[in-house]
Structures are given as structure tokens and as C-alpha cells.
Specification:
single chain, alpha+beta, OB fold (Dihydrolipoamide Acetyltransferase, E2P), six-stranded mixed sheet, 6 strands, Tissue inhibitor of metalloproteinase, protease binding, TIMP, TIMP-like_OB-fold
Length: 169
């Protein structure tokens, strides 16, 4: 019995490496979220894809042999959602759709959208991951924004829209 306990404990401890958690600072208000966002839009999510970003900092740190790192690449997987825009409250775009990048949820603060649902999205032009890993080349461009669970992005609620419209006037 004691042997089984130690084996299970060892497996449990060896099975975990670094653990990361998402922490949002303070409570977000509509006014604060609008002020701190480059974009505030309403729309319907029409697709999702995963994007693998090579983590060049880890590659540099761990692999001197480029052939080896191509076989075992360090990547940061993120989600790319496309949203059909219904209304823009803040920001400018050249298209009726935008690509929204976010983490996959859990410790990376990613927002999990559901295809076919309507959302109010507060977003920025630059990634929020850049603060921790500047070596990665994250997507950016005219029709691309970033959001996360700390930015007040939410399902569509008329009460939220009413508050946005009072502030934007």
C-alpha cells in the first residue's frame, strides 16, 4: 500500500511542470474598457482556427541545432476567430469582418467564443502576450484585434450596449 502511494505521488509530482494562471487586475467598467481599448465592436463569430506561433525565445535558449528544433518546435498555440461586424463603436476597419486573436483559455487569459453567437468585443491592435514574450511574431494588421477575459468582452447584452451608447455619444 505504501509503495503504491509513493508511486502515485511521484507520478503526480513529475507530471506537473510550470503552471501559469490568468490574473485580471481590478474590476472593469464600461467607461474604463472603452478608454483602454482600440476597438469596441458588436458582431457574430463565424469561424475559429488555431494558429501556432514559434516561440523563438525558447528555441534560442534550448536548441543550437536548427535541424533538431524543426523536428520538435516550441510553439505557442492561440485561437483566431473571425467576426462579422454588425456595429463599430470605436476603431476603424477596412472590412466587414475582423480576425480576433486570443489565447485558448485557462492560464493564458484567452476568451472562448462560440461560433454563431453575438458578442460585444473590446480589443486592442497589439497582443497582450508581447509583455511576456517579445521574441514571438504575433499577428497584427489592419483587420486584426486582440482580446482576453480581462478586457470586458462579453456575450451580447442590450444593457451593455445602452451603457456604451451613453458613453460614446
Amino acid at each position: 500500500m505504501r509503495k503504491t502511494y509513493y508511486i502515485l505521488l511521484s507520478l503526480l509530482l513529475l507530471g506537473f511542470s510550470d503552471i501559469y494562471a490568468c490574473t485580471c487586475q481590478g474590476e472593469s467598467t464600461v467607461k474604463g474598457a472603452i478608454k483602454n481599448s482600440d476597438f469596441v465592436i458588436v458582431g457574430e463569430i463565424i469561424s475559429r482556427a488555431f494558429v501556432d506561433i514559434p516561440d523563438s525565445a525558447l528555441i534560442k535558449q534550448n536548441f543550437k541545432d536548427t535541424l533538431y528544433h524543426k523536428q520538435y518546435p516550441y510553439v505557442h498555440r492561440i485561437s483566431k476567430y473571425s467576426i462579422k461586424i454588425e456595429k463599430i463603436y470605436k476603431g476603424k476597419t477596412t472590412s466587414d469582418t475582423l480576425d480576433i486573436y486570443t489565447g485558448n483559455g485557462g492560464g493564458d487569459c484567452g476568451y472562448r467564443f462560440k461560433i454563431g453567437d453575438r458578442y460585444i468585443v473590446y480589443g486592442n491592435k497589439e497582443t497582450y502576450f508581447g509583455m511576456t514574450n517579445n521574441d514571438c511574431e504575433y499577428p497584427k494588421g489592419k483587420n486584426c484585434i486582440w482580446t482576453n477575459i480581462c478586457m470586458r468582452t462579453t456575450n451580447y447584452y442590450q444593457s451593455e450596449i445602452d451603457e456604451i451608447e451613453k458613453i460614446i455619444k
